[in-house]
Specification:
- The protein is of the alpha+beta class.
- It has one domain: 6-pyruvoyl tetrahydropterin synthase/QueD (Tetrahydropterin Synthase, Chain A).
- The chain has four helices and five strands; from the N terminus they run E-H-E-H-E-H-H-E-E.
- A five-stranded mixed sheet has the order 3-1-2-4-5.
- The longest helix has 16 residues.
- It binds nickel (II) ion.
- The site of nickel (II) ion (NI) has 4 residues, from strand 2.
């Protein structure tokens, strides 16, 4: 039997959207309030979806304690109460603009590295209650 399990998580973090080759005014035209040079915060919500075959002996798809620990160690500890531009390796030195799209993809990459390859993985990231992205599409 194929099924999906979900785990929700949450972190608060600061970011600034900007492209270093643009002026502050041009960045504001492109990214609006999210380009504030002094940063601002979001309450990010996360839904992690794991899909695969139920183990017929245990009746489990995945021990949700394991998924919870992966999210704590590889997402919450990395992002919670951090300045994403300055403190999260994938984004430092303007390597990557911390849009919801890029943050979602980085979270997916981090979880994909530790999650057993037998599972499919989907990450949905809410930047606000009404704005969210999902990878893979
Ligand atoms: Ni923002």
């Amino acid at each position: 039997m194929r099924i999906s399990a979900y785990r929700k998580a949450h972190f608060n973090a600061a970011h600034r959207l900007h492209l270093p080759d643009l002026t502050d005014a041009e960045n504001h035209d492109l990214f609006g309030a999210c380009s504030n040079p002094l940063f601002h915060g979001h309450n990010y919500d996360l839904t992690v979806k794991v899909t695969g075959e139920v183990d017929p002996r245990t009746g489990f798809l995945i021990d949700l304690k394991i998924l919870k620990d992966y999210i704590r160690d590889h997402v919450e500890k990395v992002f919670d109460h951090k300045n994403i531009n300055l403190e999260v390796e994938e984004f430092t030195d303007n390597k990557l603009n911390p849009t919801a799209e890029n943050i979602c993809y980085v979270i997916w990459q981090r979880l994909r590295k530790v999650l057993d390859q037998k599972y499919e993985l989907t990450v949905r990231l809410y930047e606000t209650p009404r704005n969210f992205v999902e990878y893979p599409a």
